[in-house]
Each structure stands twice: as structure tokens, then as C-alpha cells.
Amino acid sequence: MARAGALLGPSVTSWLRGFIPPWVTSVMVVRLRGAATRHPLGTRRCSGVMTLERSYARPMVAHPRFRPRLGREDRELLGLAIPALGALLAEPLYVLTDTAVVGHLGTAQLGGLGVASGVLMFGYGLCIFLAYGTTAAVARLAGAGEQRRAAEQAVQSLWLALGLGVVLAVAGSTMSDGLIGMLGAEGDTARHAGTYLRISLLGAPAMLLMLAGVGYLRGLRDTVRPLWVAVGTAVLNLVLELVLVFGLNMGIGASAAATVVAQWAGAGCFIIWIGREVRRHDVPLRPRPGSIVRLLAVSSQLLVRNLSLTGTFLVGTAVAARIGDVEVAAHQVAFQTWMLLVLMMDAAAIAAQTMVGERLGAGDAAAARRIGTRTILWSVAVGVLGGLALAIWRGDVAGIFTSDPDVVAVAGFLLLHSALMAPLGAVAFALDGVLIGAGDQRFMAAAMVGAAGLAITAMVVGRLADLGIGWLWAAFWLFFAARSMILGLRFLGDRWQVVGAERT
Q1: Exposure on the CB side of residue 264, measured as CA atoms within 13 A
Q2: DSSP letters along 316-374, please?
């Protein structure tokens, strides 16, 4: 045995590695080691034995077929993305819960909720820069070692969020009837939409405070506490809705009131946590108008981007409302389910915002590109799996929200659209996260305006030609395809890779 082992060289042992299981090689190594010690000529003649032992010792410890192919950056990405998913679910989960509860009150109530939530999502979508912009800026500053400046950014972001929330609440309440009319709602649907919208707007300042707070904590790699808030407020919202709507029979207005209470509870948590953090860095809590104005100016490109995104979705709701009550109700079910799937795909993009910002802040452009590539792969993987699950169980999903068989049938058809569109949407949202983390807002704004223009044109043409709800969702396909192509070409270049504590 020892002589045979001595005759085996590295080429032979490497060839054998692909055919001999690890447990067999372990036995061979033990037996050959024992033979080497007993050989009368010493260890020199048995050098091949030692070669064989070394060649197998390493593969047995970490055999490629038995070791997960997750690199350090993959683990880092998932460590941030998984808890971030919970925080992302906050507002859509409120609306999804409302949809499930209100859907059992009647078709008119569900349609009214669809119209009102479209207005709310438009308003909140415009202000999402409070989270995205804060995350990117804080991550860059943290990567460059500027912790105190990051805390100062958080304080002024909170003041900006509070101011914008008050403006949004007052303006929305004043123009509620006009906004609902613009979306094509009439009769009972319009009445229920107005009730839900006016009450929900009382929570607008709280929702924007939550966005700013989430952005700051994400920038510091803290995605766990936002998860706690998301879970806690979602449970609180559900319990209150069940008690008020079904227990006390208070109708659609109670559903909105429950959401408002949950939002203010969540905002209070963020204010307390961030207050402790900024005091640790001895940062004053008073507002600085100059800093707030500069922050708003820097975020103006993200505002244009968000306006185009939410405007596209709002036009989609308006078109659905003009097709019919059944169609708008089905659109509400499918769209809210789609948004839940989007957030699952977007979790990796949120992690990328922090990681890309950190790497660029530290001057490592190559690492930022690697993270971008992994983000796309993970997001697409989630999109494929989520889309497959939705395609299989689309009928059951639609039945959760309504018992109307006509609405269930149309919603099932639209949910199939959602399932098939998921991988394409995953690419767009992943690239969003990478470029937001890089601070490439100017290009993103231009890209989103172009994609929105194509989609809205298709929606309007489809409505004028009376092509139905299926054409409306085909326009969403066009929207995500255009975004994926434009942002993908940007990512392949290097103009987005600007290093330093601030993007100039």
C-alpha cells in the first residue's frame, strides 16, 4: 500500500478527487499514514504518501460540492436585506391589511379604498427620498468616518419630514374631493374614498417621520430596529381594525383611524431612538432652515424620480376606475399584492444603498460594482420564486381580499400578469438601489421620466381605444422593461462610481 501511494503523483490524485468520495479518501489517508511509519526505508521513499495526504486533506475539509457558495459580500447583503424587508413592508402592509378588512364590507368600499390609497401612495411616494436620500448620504459619511455629520443629517431630515407631512396633510384634505374626482370615482365609491382619505391624512406627518428615521438607521447598518417597528405597528393596526370594523361595526373610516394610530406609534419609536443617537454625538436638535433648504435641493432629483414613478401608478388607478367598479376593485387587489412582491425584491436594493454608499465613501469603486452585481442576482432570484408562487396560488390570493366572484376572476388574471412581470421588475428595482446608493440622482430622474412617459402614453391610448384592463397592465410591462434597459446600460459604465464623502 505504501509503495502504491508513493507512486501516486499530484496529477493522479487530482484525477481521483473527482471520483472518490471524501469518506473513502479519509480512510486511504489513515491507512497510508500508518504504512509510511512502518516502512523500513524511512519516509523519503514514501514522499508520495505525504503528497497524497496533502492533496486530499484540504478538499475533505471544504469540498466544493458540500460548501455553500456565499461570499462575504453575499452574507453582508443578506444580513442587511432580510431585516430591511420588514421595515419596507410598513406602509404597504397597512394598506394590504386595510384591503383585506374593507374588502369584506363591499365592492364599493373596496373600490373607494383603491382610489384613496392611490392618492396616498402618490403623496408618500413623492417623499420617499426622505428614506432613500438619507440612507445614501449617511452611508457615505459613515464610510468616510464622518459620524457626527451623519447625525446632523438625521436631525435636519426629521425636521424636513415633519414640515412636509403637515403640508401634505393640509393640502390633501383641502383637495380631497377634487383628487378623487380626477381619478374617476363616482357615487358610493367616491364617498367611501373621501372618508378613508381624509382620516388617513392625519397620519401623514408620522409616516414621513418614519421614512426619515428608517433612512438614518439604514445608513448606519441598523435594519433590525426598523423591523421591530414594522412588525409592532402592523400587529397594532390589525388588532385595532378587527375591533373597530368588525367588533364595533364602525365602517371604512375606522380602518383608516387604526392605521393613523399605528403610524404615530411607529414615529414615536424612531424619534426616541434617533434622539438618543444624536445626543451621543452632541448634535443640537433645533432646526436649521439653511440646512433643510440644502437638503431639499439635493433631493430634488429624487423627487422628480419619485413623481414619475408614483404618477405612473396613479394614472394606472385612474384608468382602472374609468373602466368599471369590478375592474378598479380587481386592480386594487392585484396592485397591492404586486407591491408586496416588489418590496420582497427591493430588500436587496435597500441593502445595496447602504453598502454601495459605504464603499464609495471609503474610495472602493470596485467593491461597489461587485455589490451591484450580487444585488441584481439576489433580487432576480426572489422575483422568480415569488412570481412562481403567485402564479400557482393567484386564485387563493384574490379570494383573501373579496368574496365577489367577478372581482376574484379579474384579479386572478391580473395577478398572473404580476407573477410573470416579477423577474423583469426585480432588475429595475435592484439597479434603483445601486444607483441611489451611489447618489446618481440626476440620471435616475431622467431615466424615470422617460420610462414613465412611455407607460402613461400606452395607458391613455389603451383607454381611448377601450382595450380593457389587460392593456393597462401591459403598459406596466413596458414601464419596467424600459427602466431595466436604461438603468442596466448606466450600470455597465463607470460614471456612477464617484468616490468620496459627498458626491459633487
Answers
A1: 9
A2: HHHHHHHH-HHHHHHHHHHHHHHHHHHHHHHHHHHHHHHHHHHHHHTT-HHHHHHHHHH
For residue 504, the model assigns a pLDDT of: 59
Amino acid at 274: I
The predicted-structure confidence for 198-255, as pLDDT tens digits, reads as follows: 898 999 999 899 988 888 888 888 888 888 888 888 889 888 988 888 778 777 888 8
Contact criterion met (CB below 8 Å) for 43 and 73: no
List the domain boundaries for the chain: 2-66, 72-492
For all residues of the chain together, what is the average pLDDT?
Answer: 78
Judge if pTM exceeds 0.85.
Answer: no
Q: How many residues does the chain have?
A: 504
Question: Measured between alpha carbons, how far is 291 from 160 in angstroms, rounded to an integer?
Answer: 10
Q: Give the burial string for 328-363 (b: 16+ CB within 10 Å, else e).
A: bbbbbbbbbbbbbbbbbbbbbbbbbbbbbbbbbbbe
Q: Which residue carries 405597528 as its cell?
A: 233
Query: What does the alpha-carbon distance between residue 360 and residue 503 come to, in Å, rounded to a whole number?
Result: 9
Question: Which parts of 281-299 fold into alpha helices (H)?
Answer: 289-298
Expressed in angstroms, the distance from the first to the final Cα of the chain is 70
Provide the 8-state DSSP code for 242. I
